[in-house]
């Protein structure tokens, strides 16, 4: 009995230690700056990976937290019909079953020496062979049609050119030229369907600085003005968790180093623009009471690369709608 109690005590101690480690990791992970994971909305493209760019050649983190409904899962392949496939017609469904039954009955009759009832003789045998041959041809044609690939509408991308001035920190290649994107398919190259102007790029740079600075200062009023209600809800949640953990995330001296347009498009009366941005900032998580640095460096700037999506209605200013982390491709 004592040995059983001892084993139980050891198991309980291990479980408690594991739980403490997990909660400590969670607390450390929650003390993070905006953009460390994917949240927000990109309209109908929320759950689609944005095209890679020179600034962010790696894969963007998927948006895990969003109020946008996820698309329905694809129906099983057996329930789908290829594009352009013919209707079943006479030999579909019940028709195929009936022919199959007749052929099976004829073969059984041949084995018993009666053909299709014993009175057809040689003619009945020929008819049976013809029916069997026709069934084989129909089956071969049916499976051949199923192997033919189906193609959606379109399939071709358009090219958009932009020549920014040298006053901005955005260094945007000629979109659609293929420069720097040789390993990508045309459908995954950057595209600008709305024709972003230099004023738009300058506003994106300004929003990057203002949002990060307001986040570090825990300025809820400024964040509400610069972001969509959905994005604001996630930022406010992060700030609240930091406060609960007794820390704050100080962010200052934000400077855009390089930016690329990943894609820009219109939908439902709104315009969306997704951009890859590499920037430097002084970023540190500190204790709220003592000011002691918990993580990061409050004396030297560090670099980050993220994917930001902005949205605006006609005639209105751009607002932050989503942030995704960017995976850096190994050199």
What is the CA-based Rg, rounded? 32 Å
CATH topology of the largest domain: Nuclear Transport Factor 2, Chain: A
**Uncertain residue segments:** 11-35, 81-95, 147-184
Describe the sheet with the most strands.
Answer: 7 strands, mixed
Report the end-to-end length measured between terminal Cα atoms.
Answer: 60 Å
Structural class: alpha/beta
- In N-to-C order, the SSE pattern is HEEHHEHHHEEEE
Q: Overall mean pLDDT score?
A: 73
The largest sheet has its strands arranged as: 2-1-7-6-5-4-3
Please state the overall shape, judged from the principal axes of the Cα atoms: elongated
Signal peptide: 1-24
Protein name: Membrane protein
Keywords: Membrane, Plasmid, Signal, Transmembrane, Transmembrane helix
Region (Disordered): 46-86
Task: Summarize the structure in words.
With 331 residues, the chain is α/β, with parallel strands linked by helices. It folds into two domains: 201 residues, Nuclear Transport Factor 2, Chain: A (Roll), CATH 3.10.450; 58 residues. Strands 2-1-7-6-5-4-3 form a seven-stranded mixed beta sheet. It is elongated, with a radius of gyration of 32 Å. About 24% of the residues have low confidence. Pfam families: Tim44 (PF04280). Keywords: Membrane, Plasmid, Signal, Transmembrane, Transmembrane helix.
